[in-house]
Write a structure and sequence with these properties.
The chain is an alpha/beta fold. It has helices spanning 43-51, 70-73, 76-81, 92-123, 135-143, 229-246, 259-272, 286-296, 304-312, 329-334, 355-363, 382-387, 418-427, 443-455; strands at residues 7-11, 23-27, 30-34, 60-64, 88-90, 145-147, 154-157, 160-166, 174-182, 185-191, 214-218, 249-253, 281-284, 323-326, 342-346, 370-373, 392-395, 398-401, 405-408, 435-439, 461-463, 470-471. 33% of the residues lie in helices and 22% in strands. Residues 67, 69, 72, 169, 194 line the site of zinc ion.
């Protein structure tokens, strides 16, 4: 006999890897989709995986989005394109950021299609690649979003209640906390999305959630500790100092959302404290500029300090005199002739697309340039190759010798490291906890994190495998 209430979990992305988050909770055969992100990495492989969508759209009762990063929201337009008519639940800030991210992706895909067609034609090759979705599909996905703020529980299906708790990862980021009630029995399932960290600038710390029965936990840094922010700021000041001496440039590939605003915040702090002189800083990413605007209209997501600066003292934490936001292509191109010392922050964060690639082409051969890595670089990305110290890299299909220095600062990560994740677990009531399911991590990080959790007394920990079903008790 079937149990009166069957709850199953499976993942169609971010299982044994860090991108493509797509997690499904099934309740009596009805599917609740948590995140619908894009796979990233090498172009051909990511494209294949994103195309092979793997979710029967007509079975989805509701979709929930934890935050606006591309690897969590990027394939939502594939849902609406495939005929999904239901709601997509998100916090208001997540809706705004996700809208920006999905539109940006649609534009990049259209642009890529044009460029690849041109190249194929030139070589006399056949060309049949099509974008995964277009701007209309992205608009449709945004139109299906239903927003609910943190700590405002909402019913999203028969006996299924959703509540968002602050995840401390990026603006608007949330844990999706699902409570399934049936026949008087309550099952609580918490999806962390991406678990943030304490003491990040701008946003609040990760929340303490009510005792869960099942926890679907990310494990990106399952085997790593981050540097302390103080050390990182010192290193940042050193790198700027060297650029000032050498009249060099600092090129920073950064995610347009959160990382760019944080860097601006940190540079602002360093200038204010006199640790670095005021040198020109260019944020060369239309997306980062737009995202910064979104940051300015969501004070409900700020921590105490930012609220104080922004609301009470009318100070803008996202802007100061030497900071320039470039928007037009001409302004961006003009940066090619920019004399140092100067800082250019540009996207995409893993150097796989966008204006950062042009800046790298322009500066990679210059020994006075520093390429500063401040974020996670997934396997098989240009960013990872730079981070790994490769002397020769391929950009826009051509090989370049690297003479620029590469430096990395890990402290700005938006993800908890293993100890911080452990501390967060310690802060919540785990007396009901039956199982932890690890997602969003690469092999070594996940096994190491599993061992760490075992030492902390969490015995029932599964490393989630792609497509495998896990049953609730
Ligand atoms: Zn994220």
């Amino acid at each position: 006999m079937l149990p009166s209430m069957a709850i199953n979990f499976y993942s169609l992305g971010a299982a044994g890897e860090v991108t493509g988050s797509k997690h499904v909770m099934e309740v009596d055969g009805k599917s609740y989709l948590i995140d619908c992100g894009a796979f990233q990495g090498s172009r051909a492989e990511a494209d294949r995986k994103n195309r092979d969508f793997g979710i029967p759209v007509d079975k989805i009762e509701a979709a929930v989005l934890t935050h606006g990063h591309f690897d969590h929201c990027g394939m939502l337009p594939m849902l609406t394109k495939g005929g999904y008519k239901g709601n997509i639940y998100a916090t208001p800030a997540t809706r705004d950021l996700a809208s920006l991210v999905m539109m940006d992706s649609a534009r990049i895909q259209a642009h890529d299609a044009e460029y690849l067609r041109f190249r194929a034609n030139r070589k006399g090759e056949n060309f049949d690649w099509k974008p995964l979705y277009n701007e209309q599909d992205a608009v449709k996905a945004t139109g299906q979003m239903v927003t609910t703020s943190y700590n405002r529980p909402i019913w999203i299906g028969d006996g299924v209640k959703l509540e968002f708790f602050d995840a401390g990862h990026i603006l608007g980021s949330a844990f999706a906390y699902l409570t399934v009630t049936k026949d008087g029995k309550e099952t609580r399932v918490a999806y962390t999305g991406d678990l943030g960290r304490k003491n990040k600038p701008i946003i609040r710390d990760p929340s303490v959630i009510p005792a869960p029965d099942y926890l679907v936990l990310e494990s990106t840094y399952g085997d790593r500790r981050h540097e302390s922010t103080d050390d990182a700021l010192e290193k940042l000041a050193d790198i700027v100092g060297r650029a000032v001496r050498d009249r060099g440039r600092i090129i920073i590939p950064a995610f347009a959302i959160e990382r760019t605003q944080e860097l601006v915040y940190y540079f602002h702090m360093l200038v204010d404290s006199g640790a670095i002189p005021e040198i020109p800083i260019y944020v060369d990413s239309p997306m980062a500029t737009n995202a910064t605007t979104i940051f300015q209209v969501h004070p409900e997501c700020y921590d105490e300090e930012t609220n104080k600066a922004f609301i009470r003292h009318h100070k803008n934490p996202f802007g100061f005199n030497s900071l320039h936001f470039t928007t037009s292509v001409d302004e961006s191109k003009a940066l090619n002739n920019l004399k140092g010392p100067a800082i250019i922050i540009s996207a995409d964060g893993m150097c796989e697309a966008g204006r950062i690639q042009h800046h790298l082409v322009n500066s990679i051969g210059d020994p006075f340039t520093t390429i500063l890595i401040v974020g996670y670089m997934a396997e098989h990305t240009l960013g990872r190759r730079l981070r790994d110290g490769e002397r020769e890299v391929k950009i826009h299909g051509e090989w370049f010798k690297r003479k620029a220095n590469v430096e990395a600062i890990d402290a700005f990560s938006a993800h908890a490291d293993y100890q911080e994740a452990g501390e967060w677990l310690d802060s919540i009531d785990t007396s009901r906890l039956k199982k932890i399911m690890l997602v969003h991590g690469e092999g070594k990080a996940q096994t190491s994190f599993k061992d760490y959790l075992a030492k902390k007394g969490f015995k029932d920990v599964d490393i989630v495998q792609y497509g495998k079903t896990y049953e609730a008790e």
